[in-house]
Amino acid sequence: MYSFKINSHVSFPLEGLDLKPFLAKESPSQITTYDLLSVICHHGTAGSGHYIAYCQNVINGQWYEFDDQYVTEVHETVVQNAEAYVLFYRKSSEESVRERQKVVALANLKEPSLLQFYISREWLNKFNTFTEPSPITNHTFLCQHGGIPPTKYHYVDDLVVILPQNVWEYLYNRFGGGPAVNHLYVCAICQVEIETLAKRRKLEIDTFIKLNKEFQAEEAPTVILCISMQWFREWENFVKGKDNEPPGPIDNSKIAVMKGGHIQLKQGADYGQISEETWQYLLSIYGGGPEIAVRQTISPPDNDTHGERKIEAETRAL
C-alpha cells in the first residue's frame, strides 16, 4: 500500500556507452557505441514532485537545463551528477558524420546532372539522423507496380526529395535498396483496381439496400435468416470505404449453438435479421456459414382457439 522513491545515484557516461555485450547474437548492427543526448530528472517524492530535463545542442555540444519556462546553459558536470530518471542515448559514429558531409559536398557541386532522382523523404530523414539508416526504401511513395498510387499522387511532393545524379549514385552504392526513380507517374494498374473496387462496393451496398427494402415490405415472411452482427459490421465498414480489405467468409459460429443435433440461434446472440435473398446474395460473394433461420409455421385453427391460427416460431439450421 506504500511506495517510495529510490534516491540511489546512478552513474552514466556522456559519451562512448558500449552496448555490444548486451546485443542479441543475431543483431545486424555494426555500431554499438552511444552518446548521451538528453536526461530527464525528477525532484520530489514518489507521490509528487517536479521534472526537469537536460538536453544537448548537437550543433555546438552545449548542454542546457529546461525547467518549465526557464532554459539555462549548464556545464556537462552538472548533467553527469544529475538524479537521472530517464536517459536518452543515440548511436555515435564519426563515419556517419563524414558520410553526411560527403553528401552535402556532392549536392553543392555545380556539375550538370543529366538525370534527377527521387528519394523517399522518410529515408533521407533517417540518413540525416541515424548512424545505420538501413537500405533505401522508396516504397514509402511507390506502389508494388513501381508507380505512384493515385491516392498519394496529389501530395507526393511531401513524400519525396529530388537529388542530383551524383548524390543518388553515392547513396545507392553505399546503402543499396531502391528502386531508382527518376520519373513520377500515376500507376494505371492501381487506378483500375481502385475503380473496380469502388464499383464492387457500390454494387454490394446498392443490392443490399434493395433487398432489405423488399424484406421490410414483407408483412409475414416465412423464413428469416440470422447473420452475425460482428461480421456484418466488418462488411459494412468495407462497402462504406472505412476498411480497405473485404471481410472474410460469413462467420455465424458465435451466434450459433448445437441442440439436439441441430444448429440453433444462441440465446442473447448479437445478430441481425435478413431475408433469404439477402443471405444468398452475401453467401454467393463471401461464402461461410452456418446458415441459421427463424421459420414461422402456421397451425390450422382448432376448437380450443375459437378459430384463431396459431403461429409457432422455431429456430433451426436450414
UniProtKB/TrEMBL annotation:
Subcellular location: Cytoplasm, Cytoskeleton, Microtubule organizing center, Centrosome; Cytoplasm, Perinuclear region
Renumbered residue ranges of the record's region Disordered: 298-318
UniProt cross-references to Pfam families, sorted A to Z: DUSP, UCH
GO cellular component: centrosome; perinuclear region of cytoplasm
Principal location listed in the UniProt entry: cytoplasm
GO terms for biological process, alphabetical: endocytosis; protein deubiquitination; proteolysis
Glycosyltransferase recorded as keyword: no
DUSP domain: residues covered: 94-187, 196-298
UniProt entry keywords in alphabetical sequence: Cytoplasm, Cytoskeleton, Endocytosis, Hydrolase, Metal-binding, Protease, Repeat, Thiol protease, Ubl conjugation pathway, Zinc, Zinc-finger
Enzyme class of the recorded protein, top EC level: hydrolase
GO molecular function, one term: cysteine-type deubiquitinase activity
EC number annotated for this UniProt entry: 3.4.19.12
PROSITE patterns, per database record: DUSP, USP_2, USP_3
Compositionally biased spans, kind Basic and acidic residues: 303-318
Signal sequence range: none
Keyword Zinc-finger: yes
Catalytic activity field: Thiol-dependent hydrolysis of ester, thioester, amide, peptide and isopeptide bonds formed by the C-terminal Gly of ubiquitin (a 76-residue protein attached to proteins as an intracellular targeting signal)
Xref: InterPro entries: DUSP-like_sf (IPR035927), Papain-like_cys_pep_sf (IPR038765), Pept_C19_DUSP (IPR006615), Peptidase_C19_UCH (IPR001394), Ub_carboxyl-term_hydrolase (IPR050185), USP (IPR028889), USP_CS (IPR018200)
USP domain ranges (all copies): 1-92
Family affiliation: Belongs to the peptidase C19 family. USP20/USP33 subfamily.
Protein name: ubiquitinyl hydrolase 1
Species of origin: Sinocyclocheilus anshuiensis
Designated gene of the protein: LOC107693839
